[in-house]
Amino acid sequence: MSVSAARAAAFEILMRMEATDSYASELLHSSRLTKLSAADHALLTELVMGVLRWRSVLDDEIGKRSNQPLTKLDREVLGSLRLGAYQLLFLDRIPARAAINESVELVKRARKKSAAGMVNAVLRKLAEAESSGLFKKGIAGFDWSLSHPRWLVERWEGSYGAEITSKICESGQSVPSTTIRNARNAVGGSQDDPQLAEEGLKLEPGRLLTTAAVITAGDIHRTAAFRDHRLVIQDEASQLVALLVGHGESILDCCAAPGGKTRILAQRNPNATIVAMDLHPHRAKLTRRLVSQSTNVHVIAADARSMPLARKFDRILVDAPCSGTGTLARNPEIKWRLRPEDILRLQKYQVEILTAVMKHAAVGGRIVYSTCSLEPEENDQVVIEAIAADSTFRVFDCRNELMRVSDSGELVWKDVDSLLSGPYLRTIPGVHPCDGFFAAVLEKVSV
Fold it and tell me: At residue 338, does pLDDT exceed 90?
């Protein structure tokens, strides 16, 4: 029996993610998939992201109908069950026989023929079960936290309260909008571009920033503007963080990859000397490609904790490696990989980076420290620890910088105070129309 191209690719991606630390967003746009039709790629994306978003719910329903503990199943068997279960429980237009039969065939192709009968039986039980409100996304009273690890939900409830946590969880289960920033720094140009319209791309204005646009139809990855880097995918909160850096003559972006924020810094500071650094050479290469049109950017591969630079900078961006819990709608695999101990490990790393970088700030200069994490340990607690270790810095109120961006006409979000948590920028998925970002501005006030 044949298996559709979309299901075969979805199974392959899910298996690769089980075996490696790969991200779905990267695998889904691999050059190996360019031959898929737009319809097949849309189904592939739905299957992969759906299984990742709803994994715990799928496992619960599979477990109720399996005579073996899920922990005892080979990953290929469990992967095929999840793929079939998602289609049966969440997708109305997929015939049950297709979901079941092709899942069984995937197990056979994976050389797990002995499990084919069990996969068939479990999925048939799911198909025969009466429809339940549990399987209808958006139904009143649905407990969105069921689709997240309990320890993570409890952390958020402690930090943000039950109401906001519910919004975070609901946002994490939704399909996020795709936002772009125009290389010409003018959204109007991209919205009126006839070539984009011919390629099926439709845009509407950004919800936070005038220099952003939200894609409402079409696939940006299939446009010439995306392939030649005229248009860049970048969440609005990520763009806003780069705007907080402001203007300077010498700028350091010390955790630069993939380069979206570096690109904004270069556009806004065409006469500045900009150094963009990343730990990994292959990621530094990605940054170099994205900022290739900016002649004032020098990209290097180096560790920010021991950077090979003696000079001082008047503006520094530290977009630190983090847990990424503010981006679960885009990267749902994070919630299943992350462990409580990872957050403290990351905190230690972030403190090391920030305290090292502080030595490279000129007097009167500023550092923007940011993450896409919702966890206090990675955010304000890092800043507090770094400031305690170096009394030549003070925390500069982000409200002043947000008002500067608002006064320039770039920030269109009216409730500026909702973007703040004390002196820090804090966006929250489900509360704001963007990913969850944190940013602090540190000012070097003395030698």
Answer: yes
Percent of the chain with pLDDT over 70: 94
Q: Which pLDDT score is estimated for 101?
A: 96
| β pairing state of 313-319 and 420-421 | unpaired
Q: Is the distance from CB of 311 to CB of 299 less than 8 angstroms? A: no
Tokens of 99: 């979901």
Give the structural domain span for 75.
Answer: 5-131
* 365 and 224 in a common domain: no
CATH number of residue 209's parent domain: 3.30.70.1170
Instruction: Count how many Cα atoms sit within 13 Å of the Cα of residue 11 in the half-sphere of its side chain.
Output: 27
* The residue to which tokens 């804090």 are assigned: 426
Domain CATH code at residue 67: 1.10.940.10
Counting beta carbons within 10 angstroms of the beta carbon of residue 195, is it exposed (0 to 12), middle (13 to 18) or buried (19 or more)? exposed
**Torsions phi, psi for 131 (to 5 deg):** -60, 140
Residue 345's pLDDT is 98
Tell me, what's the pLDDT at 185? 43
Query: Taking a C-beta distance cutoff of 8 angstroms, is the pair 41, 17 a contact?
Result: no
> Global pTM?
0.93
- Please confirm, yes or no, whether 169 is among the known catalytic residues: no
Closest CA to 191 of 213, 176, 206, 208: 213
What rounded mean pLDDT belongs to the chain?
92
Query: How many Cα atoms occupy the beta-carbon half-sphere of 318 within 13 Å?
Result: 31
Query: Look-up: residue for tokens 């993939």?
Result: 258
Of 63-67, 75-79, 94-98, 189-193, which gets the smallest average pLDDT? Answer: 189-193
Contact 270, 296 (CB under 8 A): yes
Of 332, 409, 429, 366, which Cα lies nearest the Cα of 48?
A: 332
242 and 224: one domain?
no
Closest CA to 197 of 223, 228, 226: 223
Q: How many residues does the chain have?
A: 447
172 in a structural domain: no
Residue 421: CB atoms within 10 A of its CB come to 16
Which band of pLDDT confidence, cut at 50, 70 and 90, is reported for residue 196?
A: confident
> What is the tens place of the pLDDT at every residue in 239-255?
999 999 999 999 999 99
Asked whether residue 139 carries a pLDDT value surpassing 60, the answer given is no
Condensed to tens digits (0 to 9), the pLDDT of residues 17-26 reads: 999 989 999 9
Write down which residue in 115, 131, 147 finishes a domain. Answer: 131
Tokens representing residue 398 in the block? 């982000």
Specify whether the CB–CB gap between 399 and 423 falls below 8 A.
Answer: yes
Q: 267 and 381 share a domain?
A: yes
Structural domain contains residue 144: no
Which of 169, 255, 322, 372 is an active site residue? 372
